[in-house]
């Protein structure tokens, strides 16, 4: 069964394809509730799962850049800030700071309806909510430093996010996945999926 990755961001889908066999990117504009990344991702996955028919599992990814000297800005507003200020101006805000440490964080939320047929434990049929939708979340983060933009790869804030001397925009997808917030979360998710009975 394909995993529908509900995201407007082709870069996220490309990164996910390194961990998951059958990823289909889907545009669906789920509500971004107020809250931390996990709350936003889980609510988005649940909403998208139902809106897309309630059968194929759905994956949502909510990410943010947190700059220490800016009290975690842009954090949950990272998407809005990229669209309005832009990445170069986020660099210029940080340029004035001595401490340019930051981290990137993402939460993947996977909404699915486990197929319980045949593995009902004690064998009792309750006839209800045996296969209610479930949402699992997987978190990943990576420390880094905000630097003047370098590199043409990746997307979003990658040109200004340096990890171990290299910006994420200077890395290939595989190199970025090996160290990134999303790569860590995807690895956890792929491990978890491998342990699940097939739908
Ligand atoms: P969807 O919500 O449609 O998935 P988005 O790009 O808006 O796509 P987020 O809200 O999760 O995704 O991302 C918040 C911001 O952080 C947005 O500006 C992204 O471009 C940026 N971003 C997310 N992951 C990133 C990464 O791995 N490297 C650099 N920037 C990233
Ligand atoms: Na978004």
From TrEMBL:
Keywords: Hydrolase. One of its GO terms (molecular function) is hydrolase activity. PANTHER family: INOSINE TRIPHOSPHATE PYROPHOSPHATASE, INOSINE TRIPHOSPHATE PYROPHOSPHATASE/HAM1 PROTEIN. Belongs to the HAM1 NTPase family. This is Non-canonical purine NTP pyrophosphatase. It comes from Halorubellus litoreus.
């Amino acid at each position: 069964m394909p995993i529908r990755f509900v995201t407007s961001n082709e870069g996220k889908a490309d990164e996910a394809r390194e961990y998951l066999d059958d990823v289909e990117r889907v545009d669906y504009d789920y509500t971004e509730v107020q809250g931390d990344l996990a709350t936003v991702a889980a609510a988005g996955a649940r909403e998208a799962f139902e809106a897309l028919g309630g059968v194929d599992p759905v994956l949502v990814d909510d990410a943010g850049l947190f700059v220490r000297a800016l009290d975690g800005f842009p954090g949950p507003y990272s998407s809005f800030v990229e669209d309005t200020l832009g990445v170069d101006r986020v660099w210029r805000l940080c340029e004035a700071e001595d401490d340019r440490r930051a981290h990137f964080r993402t939460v993947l939320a996977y909404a699915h309806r486990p197929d319980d047929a045949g593995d009902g434990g004690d064998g009792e049929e309750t006839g209800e909510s045996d296969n209610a939708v479930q949402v699992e979340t997987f978190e990943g983060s990576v420390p880094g430093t905000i630097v003047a933009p370098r590199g043409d790869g990746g997307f979003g804030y990658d040109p200004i996010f340096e990890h171990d001397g290299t910006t994420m925009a200077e890395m290939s997808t595989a190199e970025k996945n090996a160290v990134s917030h999303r790569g860590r979360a995807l690895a956890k998710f792929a491990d978890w999926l491998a342990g699940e009975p097939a739908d």
